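Shipment paperwork, digital attachment
Item: protein structure file
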Amino acid sequence: MGTTQLESVSEPKYWHLRTVLTEALESEFTVGEILPNERDLAARFGVARATLRQALEQLELEGRLQRRRGVGTTVAPPRMGVAVGTEQHAWPGTGEDAWQAVDCTLAEAPAAVAEALETERAEPVHTVRRTRMTHGQPVAAELLYIPQSSVPELTAIDAPHGAARARAVLRELQRLELEGNESAVELGSAHADDAKELDRLPGAPVLVVTTRFLAAGRTAALSVATYRADTCRLTFGDSGNVEIHQAPEQRAS
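Attachment content:
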């Protein structure tokens, strides 16, 4: 690996270095490959290590790099595409659902959830917790809220606890005729529980996808899925083939 001197440009030096590093990632490195240490990288580009760290932190934030304690800095895999708002409506847990059930509890819902479900605050709600993985790493965590009235035939015998209970709740939910779903996406920050589950620091940027599942003219279930913003991209449109990409010069290799 030779030495590359940065050009004199008007933009911040770390930002220009980020652009140069992106080009190097695309031409010289493969997914999962470990980058040289900071000292060698700083020497290659003729910059201070503080400038290099700023550029590396920006690339990590954008999902192009992954920095792991005890391993080093590696090239991140491409962002996972997540279809949102397609014509193929389906209940959670059916078809090619990539989520894994983790747990399920039955309790009074938080006020905001009860309002979104349009249920009485005192009505018990099943909270199904699920996770989504890609390349062996967690990329999303979901809380799926299902009012007891949506699964009236479910019994404790059918689903005593844990992941088995979660799967039983989903199977019972699928007995309803799904009329459609509505999704909304917003940028947020990872709370402590989400950050732990997603292997991120609290406050890390996340994409929050809230989906209402409709049946019998009401909201039968509510999903709040939190995606790592550094590893995911969302796809929109009736056919699911219209994608929201980064600019070409920012696209991950």
